[in-house]
Design brief:
Number of strands: 9
Mean pLDDT: 86
Strand order of the largest sheet: 3-2-5-6-7
Number of helices: 3
Strand content: 35-45%
Distance between the termini: 66 Å
Low-confidence stretches: 5-25
Structural class: alpha+beta
Largest sheet: 5 strands, antiparallel
Number of domains: 1
Order of helices and strands: HEEEEHEEEHEE
Helix content: 25-40%
Amino acid sequence: MLLKKSKIICTLLGASLLALPIIASAALTIVNNTSHDSTTIINNTCSTAIGSDGITHPHSVNQVSDMNIRLVCFMTPNNCVADVRMTADCSGESVATVVYDVDSGVKQATLTPAGALAGYRLSHSGNAIQFDGN
């Protein structure tokens, strides 16, 4: 009986480990082609709360891990709203709003009036978003 339970547990554990590469591939890629750091406010929390993944530096690409995305979007995984700020500490006006689904990627990304006025441009596809401008 114990051997049978051990085989079931090993099978379940093995199946879980096989699924990890699929889950890990859902990281969010943020391309920041601007002169400013960018951060977001999600569920009233600044993205800096997750450490270095929470800041995208100027003229760089940031891969935010699936684990961190799920962590910050745990309350609203299918409709995770992020207000983007072009600062390193979530201060300042929101320049864009991004709606993200942890399973399917970016659902919507729009510039705010302040973002459009500042000359930012925004594009997205799947699990990637790109900011261009100042």
